């Protein structure tokens, strides 16, 4: 009989995925998912793009270049330029979602025991990917202005890290899970720190285009033009998953040429290429200009949903759950008052047919047990209102125990 | 300025990919690629499948389950059963080509320094993937009946391996690069060895359905029913890349439940899921029965191409290049007579506008410099004949130097 002998103590699976089983519960209202709203996909625009892709049979059906189809790379470079972060097609690597880009980067750059800095709370798949690569993860706290750059500077100067850090992972705009956006001053300070201490900033930017309030801030990659020598130290990830559709599995990496070259060599080995078919569809979609027409509709809908959620929380749970209103993205981060544990509260909520993700999923250490993440992207407006009412009822039950 | 500090000495890229630059040379006839013939894709069948997929917008556009869409897993299980290797949907993991399946397996199972056995000559991406995972690769020779199982038995009993091997990688049917097929007796012997010595057999089977001569042999996974206790020791990889189209990027893994579970956890981290959109297209294509109608056309065309290549080599280069006619697949393996180096000969061939892959690309050690791989899949019949004539002219020039 076969007995599995693992390469090392591997990750045990995403704690969020553990919650998926409750999604099938009849009548469940979920604030738990990180999925974009299915009913906001640009079906007509994507149908038209798919029809044009079908005319390019060989391009869709044959193997493609490992770094991505040139036609898509050109469109992504134009998209980056429209976003205020100019880059060229050769600076781009197309991946199966930006998550693959991060995994490839870790594989070529981070060995077992290498020190990696991560903002905390953080996207759980990031923590899992670092565990899979056996990195020594050191966390840096986040507040409502994003990564605490002063705390990072203190950490770097304290000399307590086992090795010089190879990279720092951050979602500077509408972070998952906190919804926070790194301030301009902190962006500049972070670029200076990276350049001085010679670590890569991994800027993960899937949500940047989903801004519904306030003025846009330049990405770290764009701002690197203001900090001499810093551009080499920024690796920028982005994705069509949240602004077009995850099913395309189109993400991309912009990085220093030598990093990109090594990631491409690794990708040859990992999967040869991401699906050329969906790459052609994505290229046709972007070239058609449909994104610029449709994206404002998604953003407007998310604005309404976010306001609905935050207003309902204010109305019904003002003294019980403290939240910070984000200016974009998909997530609201909250804290339970009264010293309650969000994981225990979740159990009562599931009994009331409403769910969220307890904050513990986003921590490696120093867990804030009272924290929780609510996503407003997928549920409809009336479900959001009903869901908050159920959370209120659940809290009454929970507090009464 | 940024200086790259790699995690370890990483692979340098596929030696075959280095040849790609010559593909653009005007008038080049290439026996080098491992690509299926673009003009044999079932365009109508796939167009129809894509049109049906487009009706299932949310399934195509949203994130899918990490292990693959249930509808595709059901169709792949049926395909496996039609092939004589019955399995159920829960035993399957859908990956971005079978190459990703192998990479995931290595990541969860093989640590730095773990011993991995590989048939040699072998598919280069396998050697690269093992290098990326820092495995200790030990090669086992291959002859015209496939892996030399006696040599493997001797190696296992000699006690010279640094650690007990974790797995053995083989393409038992129409191997890349040799075209060889493992005999029935050797299949049974290999299953017995794996069970006794407790190593996994990684059976990579992308070409098994491309048989144009002789009677089919059961896969190792199917034959495991004949060798008590052996099924747990077989990990089976297959793919739609060579029988439908690579652009779908649909491969799958069948393995022991614990192995599969760990691979799925790793895939959550690596890319969340392979493209649901192309998974729906693949499922629709398989469900339509189009594969059973179209595949015989591909096989018949490859039969003609293979015969054309082998006949032309017999006619023009009989005393110069010894080849073994395969019974299926995409590759003919040859050896240059006269003690010549195939890499040097390739240079002269490229000057004559014809190319192949020198055998050195497929070896880790004990390189047979005279060997070479010719693929008959992609070029047309008249190009195959013209290509062999050019090889003959090149050999005359080459031998004259």
Short note summarizing the structure:
The structure is a homodimer of 401-residue chains. Chain A has 401 residues and is α/β, with parallel strands linked by helices.
Topology:
2 copies of one chain form a homodimer.
Chain A: E1 29-30, H1 43-54, H2 57-61, H3 70-82, E2 92-96, H4 97-109, E3 115-120, H5 124-132, E4 136-143, E5 146-147, H6 149-158, E6 167-170, H7 184-197, E7 200-204, H8 220-223, E8 234-239, E9 250-254, H9 257-270, H10 276-287, H11 290-317, E10 321-323, E11 331-336, H12 342-351, E12 354-355, E13 357-358, E14 371-375, H13 381-400
Parallel strand pairs in A: 1-12, 3-4, 3-6, 6-7, 7-8
Antiparallel strand pairs in A: 2-9, 4-5, 8-9, 10-11, 11-14, 13-14
Q: Return the CATH topology of the largest domain in chain A.
A: Aspartate Aminotransferase, domain 2
Largest sheet of chain A: 8 strands, mixed
What is the terminal separation of chain A in angstroms?
A: 48 Å
**Bulk shape of chain A:** globular
Within CATH, the superfamily of the largest domain in chain A carries the name Type I PLP-dependent aspartate aminotransferase-like (Major domain)
């Amino acid at each position: 009989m076969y007995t599995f002998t693992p390469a090392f103590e591997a990750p045990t699976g995403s704690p969020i995925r553990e919650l998926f089983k409750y999604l099938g519960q009849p009548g469940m209202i979920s604030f738990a998912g990180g999925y974009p709203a299915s009913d906001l996909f640009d079906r007509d625009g994507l149908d038209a793009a798919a029809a044009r892709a079908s005319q390019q049979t060989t391009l869709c059906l044959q193997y493609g270049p490992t770094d991505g189809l040139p036609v898509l790379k050109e469109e992504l470079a134009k998209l980056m330029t429209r976003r205020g972060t100019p880059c060229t097609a050769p600076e781009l690597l197309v991946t199966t979602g930006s998550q693959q880009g991060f995994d490839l980067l870790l594989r070529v750059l981070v060995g077992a025991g290498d020190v990696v800095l991560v903002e905390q709370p953080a996207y759980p798949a990031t923590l899992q990917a670092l565990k899979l690569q056996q990195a020594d993860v050191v966390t840096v706290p986040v507040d409502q202005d994003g990564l605490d750059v002063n705390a990072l500077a203190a950490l770097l100067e304290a000399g307590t890290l086992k090795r010089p850090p190879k990279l720092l992972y951050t979602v500077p705009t509408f972070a998952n899970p906190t919804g926070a956006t790194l301030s301009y001053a902190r962006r500049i300070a972070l670029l200076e720190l990276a350049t001085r201490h010679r670590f890569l900033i991994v800027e993960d930017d899937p949500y940047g285009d989903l801004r519904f309030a306030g003025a846009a801030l330049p990405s770290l990659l764009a701002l690197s033009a203001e900090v001499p020598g810093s551009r080499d130290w920024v690796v920028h990830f982005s994705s069509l998953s949240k602004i077009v559709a995850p099913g395309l599995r189109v993400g991309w990496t912009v990085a220093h040429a030598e990093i990109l070259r090594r990631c491409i060599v690794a990708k040859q080995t990992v999967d040869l290429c991401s699906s050329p078919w969906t790459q052609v569809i994505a290229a046709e979609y972007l070239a058609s200009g449909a994104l610029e027409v449709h994206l404002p509709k998604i953003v407007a809908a998310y604005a309404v949903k976010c306001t609905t959620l935050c207003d309902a929380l204010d109305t019904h749970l003002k003294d019980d759950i403290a939240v910070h209103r984000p200016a974009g993205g998909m997530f609201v981060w909250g804290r339970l008052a009264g010293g309650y544990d969000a994981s225990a509260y979740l159990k009562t909520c599931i009994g009331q047919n409403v769910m969220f993700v307890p904050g513990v999923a986003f921590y490696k250490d120093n867990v804030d047990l009272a924290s929780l993440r609510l996503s407003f992207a997928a549920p409809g407006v009336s479900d959001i209102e009903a869901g908050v009412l159920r959370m209120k009822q659940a809290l009454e039950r929970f507090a009464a125990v």
